[in-house]
Specification:
Blueprint lengths: L1 H31 L18 E3 L11 H7 L13 H12 L19 E7 L2 E6 L4 E6 L4 H5 L8 E8 L5 H4 L2 H26 L1 E3 L7 H7 L6 E11 L2
Antiparallel strand pairs: 1-4, 2-3, 2-5, 3-4, 5-7, 6-7
Helix pairs in contact: 2-6, 3-6
Amino acid sequence: MIEIRAMRKNIINMAAIGFFTLALTACGNAASNQPEAKADKAATEIPADSIIKLLEPDKTLDASLMQALTDRASQREFADKQLSLEDLSSLLWAANGVNREDGKRTAPSAVNAQDVDIYVSMASGAYLYDAKQSQLTRITTEDLRSAVCGKQPMEAPVFLVMVADISRYPEGLASQRPLVESFAAMDAGYVSQNICLYCSAAKLATVPRASMDKEALTKSLNLKDTQIPLLNNPVGYMK
């Protein structure tokens, strides 16, 4: 009788040990099947070349449109860190890049005039964004960020300046300057809004501004009479 009880006790103990082992194995397998944390994105330094080839935009941001709208806020302080080429490339595409085979853009424009150009001002100079070629072409080696700041100093690594060229409107409209200037102002606003929403989704800091030294920018950027600086967005990493 004593032997039978001992055998039963051994069987129960062995079953308990086996169950415990299976549980540990299952937990280990479950942990190993969990997706690995994403590695930090590569951060390529923006070269100080006369022509900067941009990268393909990253279209895999986790933030939804509604979340970007929820988080959008004007920020005037920036971390002391240069923007990466990856982030600048995606930012410019979101702002006013080509998103269709017919050459149309992420931002709308009146009568599809595509009148808004983006000038990128950095320490290495000021560049014109070429959306079709996906590149930046240097206009001047002068650091124009202080001119973009105007009377409101800000220390951002990059300033995006929206310049509208009203000569791109159809001839019947181009002669009506007050009308096309109002169209151009709206078109620049669409681009600035794209910048704000992208920055919100990508956790970048920005603020839309109309203040700037337009006379100095017109001279340094060699702008024509039909080219009007309208808005600017300083952009950087959050402080």
